[in-house]
Design brief:
Layout (H helix, E strand, L loop, with lengths): L8 H17 L2 H10 L6 H18 L2 H14 L12
Helix pairs in contact: 1-2
């Protein structure tokens, strides 16, 4: 498997959540599977980096700038549909 540094961010975050869910549930088989799949996930530094990345993303999503960018993105996707069957009043 790819190193955590080489894999897409979404995949690394998904593995992080899988690991912590297995820890809360006490699921040793899942933890062993994850450890063999991606041993870096169990390093303190990598765990802290991913946690910080998630916290930063959550803070950014709450910001006004994110909301503005989201509105712009949605506005670009919207199109006007002209319906000629129903006359405009």
């Amino acid at each position: 498997m790819k190193s955590l540094d080489e894999m897409p961010v979404n995949d690394a975050i998904a593995l992080y959540y899988e690991k912590h869910h297995a820890l809360r549930q006490g699921n040793m088989t899942k933890l062993l599977e994850l450890r063999s799949k991606c041993p870096e996930l169990f390093e303190k530094e990598k765990d802290a980096q991913i946690r910080d990345m998630i916290e930063y993303a959550k803070e950014f999503q709450a910001s006004d700038r994110y909301k503005e960018l989201r509105r712009i993105h949605l506005k670009e996707k919207l199109t006007i549909i002209n319906n000629e069957i129903i006359p405009n009043e």
